[in-house]
Specification:
Helix content is about 15%, strand content about 35%. The termini are close together. The chain has one domain. The chain is α+β, with helices and mostly antiparallel strands. Strand 1 and strand 2 form a beta hairpin.
Length: about 100
């Protein structure tokens, strides 16, 4: 897995490797705004993730998830402020994302 120094570097690096779709959280799925395509938690895998802490405040963190649909037709990124989705996502989706927040994963 490549190492990135900044959130922007990670997004550029992932996009250059084909993770071109921008995903957003939509309660019980992730959604591509430009196409309207939605993927439920059992329809995608998180293949890489990168966490970045704020320069002045470690609690200002973001995580970039590199996501691929299980059918291989979609690859993209989901950027989430650390812990921000906890009220806006289903329990199943939160569980899938949280696995990748733990140190050492």
């Amino acid at each position: 897995m490549p190492a990135y120094d900044t959130l922007l570097d990670a997004l550029e690096g992932l996009r250059s490797r084909g993770f071109a779709t921008d995903f957003n959280l939509a309660f019980d799925n992730i959604q591509c705004r430009s196409t309207g395509t939605c993927l439920k938690a059992d329809e995608f895998e998180i293949v890489e993730h990168y966490r970045f802490e704020g320069a002045t405040n470690p609690s200002d963190s973001s995580i970039v998830y590199a996501i691929e649909s299980k059918d291989g037709k979609m690859k993209g990124v989901l950027v989430s402020a650390y812990g921000m989705y906890s009220e806006a996502a289903s329990d199943e989706l939160i569980s899938k994302l949280r696995v990748h927040e733990l140190p050492g994963h």
